[in-house]
Automatic annotation (TrEMBL):
UniProt-recorded name of the protein: histidine kinase
Keywords: Kinase, Membrane, Phosphoprotein, Transferase, Transmembrane, Transmembrane helix, Two-component regulatory system
Intracellular or extracellular location(s): Membrane
Highest classification ranks of the organism: Bacteria, Pseudomonadati, Pseudomonadota, Alphaproteobacteria, Rhodobacterales
Cited SUPFAM superfamilies: ATPase domain of HSP90 chaperone/DNA topoisomerase II/histidine kinase, Homodimeric domain of signal transducing histidine kinase
One CC-aspect GO term: membrane
Amino acid sequence: MATLNLLVAVSLAYVALLFGVAFAADRLAAKGRSTWLRSPLIYTLSLSIYCTAWTFYGAVGYAARSGLEFVTIYLGPTLVMVGWWWGLRKLVRIGRSQRVTSIADLISSRYGKSNLLAICVTVLAVLGITPYISLQLQSITLSFSIFFDETNMRGFSETRLVLWIAVGLAVFAILFGTRNLDANERHHGVVTAVALEAVVKLVALLAVGIFVVWGVAGGVGPALARIDASQIGQWQVNGGRWAAITFLSAAAFVCLPRMFQVMVVENDDERHLRTASWAFPLYMLLISLFVVPIAAIGLELMPKGANPDLFVLTVPLSQGQDGLAMLSFLGGFSSATSMVIVAAMALSTMVSNHLVMPIWLSRRGSGASVSGDVRHIVLVSRRIAIGVIMALGYFYFELSGGGSALASIGLISFTGIAQILPALVGGLFWRGATRTGALAGLTVGFCLWVHTMLLPGIGSELMPPSVFESGPFGIGWLRPQALFGIEGLDPTVHAVMWSLALNAAVFSLVSLLTFPSPLERLQGAQFVNVFDHSAGPRGWTGSVAQSEDLMIMSQRIMGGGEAQAFFREEAARQGIHAGLPEPTPAFLERLERKLAGSVGAATAHAMIGQIVGGSSVSVEDLLAVADESAQLMEYSSRLEAKSAELTRTAAKLRDANEKLLQISQQKDAFLSQVSHELRTPMTSIRAFSEILRDTEGLAAEEQTRYAAIIHDEALRLTRLLDDLLDLSVLENGEVSLNLGTGTLAEVLDRAISTALSGLERPIEIRRRRSAENIVLHTDLDRLAQVFINLISNAQKYCDAPRPELVIAVHDLKGRIAVDFIDNGSGVPPEAQKMVFEKFARVVHDKAGGAGLGLAICREIMNRLDGEIVYLADRTGGAFRVILPAAAEMAAQ
Ligand code: ADP
């Protein structure tokens, strides 16, 4: 019997060989000499990770226990491969066009890139695979223990052995699966090693089979006779279980993360599927060919109570075939390790992409890019994920006690993973499927699976027998193996039926009731109609006719000169001296890069794709284009806002400029008016003073008359200068008010006496003193100045033969108005608007002033918060002074 040392040495040598193969394959792939690595054969062989240790050891045990039912495990995938070939092709096409990295990624990107959904699928996959990992641990442990005899077992318990195997597998998976990071998550080395393992396990099983049939039974005929005689021949076929398990294995074949990894992610060429569709069923046929003979002969040869799961090992050993047993051990070892590597790789990708990275990125803030530290985080998180997954498998093994038959553990995993099927198939074929529907279906399926299969499978620690008898919390219709009171079903059929049926029903119903988001709709269309949207192999080639289109487009984007120079340069590079360059891939790539500088990478890619690719644009491209246009729009709206602001500023500047112009014109007009007003009296003063100086013998009365004129003119000048000064002080707001209290009657009295003093023919003034008994609190002197001006104006300009001035006081909606109305002809209508302006004079005569009086009145009233207006509807000159509201006090 082989010793443990030899076994360990062989295993290590085998692992070293696998490493060597993987390393060499990676080297070849890196050098680009990997055509045979990408052959349909390698692809088909890599699919064989479907056949794990469960199939290698478990199928024989399954056959020994349940007859031909083990066939269902092969039947499901065969049906998928043959009958649903087109569905797989669609999956592979989508995987390629959407650059999908795992099944969680596929589901999440189908349903609007929902990370929540990816997390759900990841968690479900990790939990679903856990029993499976423990299955591999169990089978390797069992196979090791077969080679132990008493001396080897010294101080070595089975639990310790499992732990060491788990650690060994974890290290193995980490070394294999996370050696490098590839953007497409392709691993040529691993796939090649897996293909080699597929050959080893097939050869091992065939060798044992041939030995059993020809070496032990003595030929095909006797072997068949022995099978008939054994209990396998007696087994009844249970139709329900057959259908359920066939369906389950078909579903698992599509949904298992490791199958998705080799079938979709690692696929190099869609056409490989065509070969695999017949070659893989053939592989499964070969690997299952000798299952029944080995089981039958094993049952016959081995003592009662021997574990039928190990017949593949124990039968050769019992016949003294140590070498064959060793080969068989390597076959089982291959089955377990290849499954663990690929599963751990697929799961750790999902965990790091959908659980660790989003958390890490959100904690890091937005600045992260795919740089060295991110790579480091990804690698570390994948390694830790593999460790955690292996640890979960180990704990499941410990919890379930490792006692169950391999096949039933495998079915638990299959059912868990199959919960992804409704969301996956719905997503591929039904545009109406929504994210909420997928989430709801997955949740329902997952809960039912945990309740009806996972927990009952672990055993009494987590689910006491009372739950089986009377349901959780005594709720009878929730009994894990008799949901809704339907009893008598096989537990597996029961769990598969309820979990998948309710999962699918909830998924469809919720999808019908909810609306997909725009992104989901877009992705849904891309997935369902993937064959309309994506070209097969990537890479652009085009005809010269397309070069013209490219030229036109480029000119539009880069501008004529630059585009022509670029095309000329490219043509010269291709050796073409007149005409446009050929649209070779290299040229297109450079053009794309050049255009990207102006319109953004995504837009450039989409534009060239439109012209050359002939294919429609991928969703990714569309979204990126939308992103870029959103940025452009934001930029242009910012520009618009700026230009609107500039327009407003320009308008303000124009207004200000106009005002300045006006003011400057007013100033010029004012200066010329003033100089004119000053010049007139100055001229007469000069003229008369010259006469006085130069004329000798001027009569005394003449002298007096001239001197009087000079005096008058000087007075006028002084008055004018006083008025100007007063006006400018008022206009500049520099005047300070001298507030005081007095009655209106007093102010009027003072004004009248001042205005009329020294006049030979004073105007007759009529007033009603009783109405004037109003107390004012304002600048009384300034108010009197206004009154004086109005009274003297009436005096000056009233042309009636008997001039009269009526001063009337009114109450005008709570304010006091004092009207000054004379019986002259007044101000003509066209001049009425003007009279308050500076230098406004209706009649130019000597009697009149400079036309500043009313302007001063208006300024004073403004300062006093009152008003002065001309009353147009009266016959004579009529002015109204409205007293300031705050200045009045209640009439006494
Ligand atoms: P001035 O200081 O020359 O009197 P004002 O500004 O006081 O100038 O008056 C402007 C013009 O309004 C006068 O030239 C005159 O023609 C006209 N005006 C003012 N008051 C009366 C009135 N009571 N009747 C007729 N015209 C008047």
